[in-house]
Amino acid sequence: MREDTLSIDSLSERQREVLRIVIQEFVQTAQPVGSAGIVGRYDLGVSPATIRNDLAALERMGLLTHPHTSAGRIPTDLGYRFFVHYLLSNLELPPEEQETIRLQFRQAPAEIDQWLRTSTAVLARASQSAAVATAPRVARCTFKHMELVHIQGTKVLLVLVSQEGAVKQQILDLDRPMEQHELSRISNELNDQLGGLDSAGVAARLATLTPFAQQVAEVALEAMRRIEQAEGALFFRDGLAEVLSAPEFAERENARRIVRVLEDPGLLEQIAEDLPDSGNVYVLISGDGRYAELRDVSVVLSRYGASDRVSGLLGVIGPVRMRYGRTIGVVRFVSCIMSEKLEEIYGGD
Questions:
Q1: Alpha-carbon distance 209 to 326, whole Å?
Q2: Contact 300, 328 (CB under 8 A)
Q3: Signal sequence: where (predicted)?
Q4: 177-195 pLDDT, tens per residue?
Q5: Are 117 and 186 in a shared domain?
Q6: pLDDT confidence of residue 41
Q7: 292 shares a domain with 147
Q8: Is 152 found in the same domain as 130?
Q9: Measured in whole angstroms, how far is the alpha carbon of residue 343 from the centre of its chain?
Q10: Of 12, 30, 60, 26, nearest to 38 (Cα)?
Q11: pLDDT, tens only, 28-48
Q12: Whole-number Å distance between alpha carbons of 295 and 278
């Protein structure tokens, strides 16, 4: 059965339960699941023959398959997608685990890179997979304040501060020496004229400035654009040993594939184009047919950020045989914490 024709109504209530059981058992054991095992461990009130019929029906729908060496079934990629889309429930972490995670963030130094290291450590431990996070990137750079400081002769230091917290410094070599009081006057002119403007607003205001102030503003504008174009140089990873211990990555080529994914923040950015909002969680199973490098790999990804001005990515990368409910829950919770942390820094500006 094609994926676009499947819905929750395609399965009977018992077939949904059988599919859920097969996936839960296979995720725990990595072994095919048979009808005898289901009847022996779960009270479904029907015979093994009835369960065999349900397994066969689920296989005809493309949700299960069976290795040729075993009579038991294992989920297909379509089966996992159906499970995530229709059958998952109770994605909230237990309150005591939420408090433990919050405590780890409170104990971490109040720096973004330390929070991101905490994020990946929490995600890797909770999911038993690899975790990744990118440093927040400024979506729109806004002029807050600048200062021109005389150094020596014609050398002047330009210090630019954005409302998002970025600080840029650049040495200017002037045509002639200028006294500090002249530089301060130009700084005040630019702060009065440009304060609160984004790069487009600064560009539009250039023609209204005095000649030297215009030259300085052009340098500041280039710095603002570089901030906006930055890809988030810091990329954090954790849990490589955990994910490589999964039987799916025992083969060398499979291990190489997931290591390549973990080393490529650009791929995560490409995937995350469908994630405009902080807090949403995106699940990509075996590349969903769009990313060959993600074959046999699942990605659970969320964007975190503050006030539509700064955002980054964090998530979990592991085998398709993943504990999706728990992984989605912890990715969502850590993403919310990171968004709260950034709101504390940037939200009030």
A1: 56
A2: yes
A3: none
A4: 999 999 999 999 999 999 9
A5: no
A6: 92
A7: no
A8: no
A9: 17
A10: 26
A11: 999 999 999 999 999 899 999
A12: 26
